[in-house]
Protein backbone atom coordinates (compact mmCIF):
# COMPACT_ATOMS: atom_id res chain seq x y z
CA UNK A 1 0.00 0.00 0.00
CA UNK A 2 1.19 3.51 -0.81
CA UNK A 3 1.86 5.56 2.36
CA UNK A 4 -0.40 8.32 0.99
CA UNK A 5 -3.33 5.87 0.91
CA UNK A 6 -3.15 5.61 4.71
CA UNK A 7 -4.10 9.29 5.11
CA UNK A 8 -7.82 9.90 5.64
CA UNK A 9 -8.45 12.64 3.08
CA UNK A 10 -11.66 14.67 3.48
CA UNK A 11 -14.40 14.75 0.83
CA UNK A 12 -12.44 17.45 -1.04
CA UNK A 13 -9.26 15.39 -1.05
CA UNK A 14 -7.59 17.49 1.66
CA UNK A 15 -6.04 16.88 5.06
CA UNK A 16 -5.42 19.52 7.78
CA UNK A 17 -1.77 20.23 8.55
CA UNK A 18 -0.14 21.82 11.58
CA UNK A 19 3.36 23.29 11.22
CA UNK A 20 5.33 23.14 14.47
CA UNK A 21 8.77 24.67 14.90
CA UNK A 22 11.48 22.15 15.67
CA UNK A 23 13.30 23.06 18.84
CA UNK A 24 10.84 25.53 20.36
CA UNK A 25 7.74 23.42 19.57
CA UNK A 26 5.87 26.65 18.79
CA UNK A 27 2.78 26.01 16.66
CA UNK A 28 3.42 28.24 13.67
CA UNK A 29 0.44 27.75 11.41
CA UNK A 30 -2.41 25.62 10.15
CA UNK A 31 -2.95 24.84 6.48
CA UNK A 32 -4.25 22.17 4.12
CA UNK A 33 -2.58 19.64 1.86
CA UNK A 34 -3.84 17.53 -0.96
CA UNK A 35 -2.15 14.30 -2.00
CA UNK A 36 0.25 16.06 -4.38
CA UNK A 37 1.27 18.64 -1.74
CA UNK A 38 2.06 15.95 0.83
CA UNK A 39 4.02 13.91 -1.72
CA UNK A 40 6.01 17.03 -2.78
CA UNK A 41 6.68 17.93 0.85
CA UNK A 42 8.15 14.47 1.47
CA UNK A 43 10.12 14.57 -1.78
CA UNK A 44 11.55 18.08 -1.41
CA UNK A 45 11.95 18.32 2.38
CA UNK A 46 10.17 21.69 2.35
CA UNK A 47 6.57 22.54 3.10
CA UNK A 48 4.18 22.54 0.19
CA UNK A 49 0.55 23.23 0.98
CA UNK A 50 -2.67 23.45 -1.01
CA UNK A 51 -4.21 26.91 -1.22
CA UNK A 52 -7.98 26.57 -1.16
CA UNK A 53 -8.48 30.22 -2.13
CA UNK A 54 -6.20 29.93 -5.18
CA UNK A 55 -7.02 26.26 -5.83
CA UNK A 56 -3.37 25.35 -6.41
CA UNK A 57 -0.20 24.15 -4.71
CA UNK A 58 1.44 26.72 -2.47
CA UNK A 59 5.16 26.35 -1.88
CA UNK A 60 5.56 28.03 1.53
CA UNK A 61 7.82 31.03 1.02
CA UNK A 62 7.38 31.29 -2.74
CA UNK A 63 6.42 34.97 -2.40
CA UNK A 64 7.70 35.89 1.08
CA UNK A 65 10.95 33.92 1.14
CA UNK A 66 9.81 32.41 4.46
CA UNK A 67 10.45 28.78 3.52
CA UNK A 68 9.81 25.90 5.89
CA UNK A 69 12.39 23.09 5.90
CA UNK A 70 10.66 19.89 6.98
CA UNK A 71 12.43 17.60 9.46
CA UNK A 72 9.57 15.22 10.26
CA UNK A 73 6.16 14.39 8.90
CA UNK A 74 3.80 12.81 11.43
CA UNK A 75 0.27 11.47 11.16
CA UNK A 76 -2.15 11.52 14.11
CA UNK A 77 -3.81 8.44 15.62
CA UNK A 78 -6.90 8.77 13.41
CA UNK A 79 -4.80 9.33 10.25
CA UNK A 80 -6.68 12.56 9.54
CA UNK A 81 -4.26 15.31 10.68
CA UNK A 82 -0.65 15.82 9.59
CA UNK A 83 1.99 17.44 11.79
CA UNK A 84 5.12 18.92 10.22
CA UNK A 85 8.19 19.58 12.37
CA UNK A 86 9.84 22.49 10.56
CA UNK A 87 12.56 25.11 10.64
CA UNK A 88 11.17 28.48 9.61
CA UNK A 89 13.68 30.22 7.32
CA UNK A 90 13.93 33.63 5.67
CA UNK A 91 14.01 35.88 8.75
CA UNK A 92 15.37 35.69 12.28
CA UNK A 93 13.31 34.94 14.26
CA UNK A 94 11.29 32.94 11.76
CA UNK A 95 8.11 34.45 10.28
CA UNK A 96 5.41 31.93 9.44
CA UNK A 97 2.39 34.25 9.32
CA UNK A 98 1.40 36.49 6.41
CA UNK A 99 0.85 39.25 9.01
CA UNK A 100 4.62 39.35 9.59
CA UNK A 101 4.47 37.50 12.92
CA UNK A 102 6.32 34.41 14.09
CA UNK A 103 3.11 32.41 14.46
CA UNK A 104 -0.39 32.66 13.04
CA UNK A 105 -1.66 32.06 16.57
CA UNK A 106 -0.92 35.55 17.89
CA UNK A 107 -4.28 36.34 19.48
CA UNK A 108 -5.02 35.12 23.00
CA UNK A 109 -8.40 35.06 24.73
CA UNK A 110 -8.18 37.18 27.90
CA UNK A 111 -10.92 38.73 29.99
CA UNK A 112 -13.66 38.25 27.42
CA UNK A 113 -11.73 39.47 24.39
CA UNK A 114 -8.96 38.58 21.95
CA UNK A 115 -5.64 40.25 22.71
CA UNK A 116 -2.69 40.37 20.30
CA UNK A 117 0.27 38.89 22.20
CA UNK A 118 2.94 38.61 19.47
CA UNK A 119 4.61 41.53 17.72
CA UNK A 120 4.84 42.11 13.98
CA UNK A 121 8.44 41.22 13.13
CA UNK A 122 8.31 42.58 9.59
CA UNK A 123 5.74 44.76 7.87
CA UNK A 124 3.68 42.59 5.48
CA UNK A 125 3.89 45.41 2.90
CA UNK A 126 7.67 44.85 2.83
CA UNK A 127 7.26 41.07 2.64
CA UNK A 128 4.76 40.94 -0.22
CA UNK A 129 6.01 43.59 -2.62
CA UNK A 130 4.35 43.40 -6.01
Structure description:
This protein has helices spanning 35-44, 124-127, and strands at residues 14-21, 27-34, 48-51, 56-59, 68-75, 82-88, 107-110, 113-116. It starts with 13 loop residues before the first strand and ends with a helix. With 130 residues, the protein is mainly beta. It has a four-stranded mixed β-sheet with strand order 2-1-6-5, with helices on one face. The protein has a two-stranded antiparallel sheet with strand order 3-4. The chain has a two-stranded antiparallel ribbon with strand order 7-8. A hairpin with a 2-residue loop joins strand 7 (107-110) and strand 8 (113-116).
Outline:
This protein has helices at residues 35-44, 124-127; strands spanning 14-21, 27-34, 48-51, 56-59, 68-75, 82-88, 107-110, 113-116. The protein has 130 residues and is mostly beta strands. The chain is globular and about 45 Å long.
Amino acid sequence: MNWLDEVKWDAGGLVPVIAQEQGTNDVLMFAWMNREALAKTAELGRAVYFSRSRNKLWFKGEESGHVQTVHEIRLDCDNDVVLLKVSQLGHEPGIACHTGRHSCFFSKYENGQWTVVEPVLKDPEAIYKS
